[in-house]
Amino acid sequence: TFPGMLAMGFSINLLTLFGIVLAIGMVVDDAIVVVENVERNMVKYHLPPREATIRAMEQIGTSLIAVVLVMASVFIPAAFLPGTTGQLYKQFAITIVISVALSGFVALTLTPAMCGLMLKHRPPPQRGPFAWFNRQFDRFTVAFGHVVVFMIKRMAVAFALLAVLIGGLVYLFRTTPTSFVPNEDQGYLMSMVVMPDATSLNRTAQTTEVVDKLFAKDPAVADRAVVNGFSLIDGQYKTNVATVFVPLKDFEERYSSIERARTENAKTVLLKATAEARGSINTGVFIPIAPPAIPGIGTTGGFEFWVQDKKAGAPERLYDVTQGLLTKARQRPELGNLSSTFRAVSQQLRAEVDRSKSVLLGVSVADVYSALQAQFGSITVSQFNQYSRVWNVILQSDASYRREPSDITRLYTRSQDGQMVPLSAVVKTEYVTGPDLVPHFNGFPAAQITGAAAPGFSSGDAIKAMEATARETLPDGYDFAWSGMAYEEKKSGGTSAAAFAFGLIIVFLVLAAQFESWTLPGSVMTAVPFGILGALVFNWLRGLENDVYFQIGLLVLIGLGAKNAVLRVTFAVELRKQGLSIMDATIQAGEERLRPIIMTSMAFILGVLPLAIATGAGANARHSIGTGIMGGMIGETTLAMLYVPLFFYLFDRLAERSEAKKETVFPSKPTQEEVPHGSAKGD
């Protein structure tokens, strides 16, 4: 698989490693099927290894090709999905397709050759644990056949139970919380301190010292970095804000034991700091910030919500609308850590130049503004070269000379006749209120609101609650929009649905071409809902969410469920061609394919078990995909094992009746080589 990844330009990352881990379970499946069928032919028909291998490949060669085609047809459409979600699907899907294609080629070539050369015909053990296991499994196989007969003869009971299962599937889909991707422990945290408007930088620094001490005493924290005067959320530079970056200790140290992993993970550290800040910080607001789950999508974890003023009204009105929305939103139990850095009533010092007096005194208005900028702001006046670099010369008054509004009286500018004129003669100052910054989003004046889902709720719940509150609260002329992770989560729903739809359609078409029938693929596809039901049940039991990784797992289950069903249905079709009745072919195919299906399913379940119990970096993503696939495989190995034979029986009878009607309408005299379908005794 690695040469294929290199050719596609993929790196070794979380997604490609997911694909490789799952491929470990998938690629051994084909070899297991081949070896098991060769062994069965050697024991049942007393054939030498070479003849048993040839007979086995004649029986399952078509199934192996169908399995490879089904798995490829599930994942290839996902590789062409657009957007961020499509990129997540793409690397995962292509990695699995490469692995499955190679495993199919090996199962059709190298594995049979190795079976013919290495396997030895030996009688099954008559005593010991292996003999006991074989006897118990034979009894289980016979019991399984009786249950299949019961399901076929008692269809009303089977379909009543199926209705309950489908109802549970729909209920779990509607009630399972949704999100985009799970928040991970990325090895660092962030936080912000917001002080009252017009707070000096010194007072802000005093508060951040308290925050620094809160993090410093936590054993999981490695270091702290404080940037006073910078707002991480909106990128503003103001004296009343500060951002704190908190690198954590290495994962190996923090996750060295279960107890340390529980108390020193990033989420716990942030929650502890937030709880302590509420009791020790009363001069400002402490805002905990988790990093975005996918670096580069948004600046923070949680959601980024924008209130848009589509009429471009006064900033004060936008501020009032935003505060009203925040007041309502804070009453919703699904929402937490709501804040907005937009201020329209911040204290400002307005410097107004008397243009008429400037003309009388012969002072250029441009010179007045340049003097103010150079002394109270900064201005680049020159450059020089040194050490092979270009250095800027920036002019600015020392801090002690630009601290008070009265410092303007110390400044002079030259008039047109060469005299020095004090700026206080032409500049009048007064305190006013106004916005520090008027951000725009989608071309409209907008205010940003950041927040996160409250404990016990998912990001999908938070998005729904925020949208419902905005629709109730925002007046005419105002609208809302999403950015960052929330925006990607809103888009991901349609993308995942498209992946499922394309996967199901193409699998059906591939199977229809394989079986040369429009009805038999239906019996194969009936295995898919049971896998999805199992995945949802296990996800619900662990309290996980329906995120992109879980949805990728559902896509895997489409291929795996169809693969197991293909093994049964293909074998049953071969038995029908040999003259067996529908009932006999259904039962025999189920019994003879039971062992390899359980073997391959158990191998795959154990292969993904490390994902479901993982700890450390990326553990939440591994839990999401591993738990869903484990539950889905258990559902497909139990419930689907009973219902696929039932639906094969129904669909094959339907096809037989359809052919019988055609024979009635268009009778034809069979030749000696032709044998009418379904003419076997007992059908």
From the N-terminal CA to the C-terminal CA, the straight-line distance is: 47 Å
How many strands appear in the DSSP assignment? 15
- Number of contiguous helices: 21
- Taken as a percent bin, the fraction of beta residues is 5-15%
> Average pLDDT across residues?
83
Q: Regions with pLDDT < 50 over 5+ consecutive residues?
A: 671-683
Shape: elongated
- Structural class, from helix and strand content? alpha+beta
Largest sheet: 5 strands, antiparallel
Over all CA atoms, what is the radius of gyration? Answer: 35 Å
- What portion of residues is helical? 55-70%
Oligomer: single chain
Summary tags:
683 residues, 14% strand, disordered C terminus, five-stranded antiparallel beta sheet
Written overview of the protein:
By secondary structure, this protein is an alpha+beta fold. The strands form five sheets. Strands 5, 6, 13, 14 and 15 form a five-stranded antiparallel beta sheet that branches. The protein has a four-stranded antiparallel beta sheet with strand order 2-3-1-4, covered by helices on one side. A hairpin with a 6-residue loop joins strand 2 and strand 3. Helix 7 crosses helix 18. The longest helix is centred in the last third of the chain and has 47 residues. The C terminus is likely disordered.
SSE map:
Elements: H1 2-8, H2 14-45, H3 49-75, H4 83-108, H5 110-118, H6 129-153, H7 155-175, E1 188-194, H8 201-216, E2 225-230, E3 237-247, H9 251-254, H10 258-263, H11 266-280, E4 285-289, E5 303-309, H12 315-329, E6 335-339, E7 346-353, H13 355-361, H14 365-376, E8 379-386, E9 389-395, E10 412-414, E11 420-422, E12 427-434, E13 440-441, E14 444-453, H15 459-473, E15 478-483, H16 484-515, H17 520-525, H18 527-541, H19 548-577, H20 582-612, H21 619-665
Antiparallel strand pairs: 1-3, 1-4, 2-3, 5-14, 5-15, 6-14, 7-12, 8-9, 10-11, 13-14
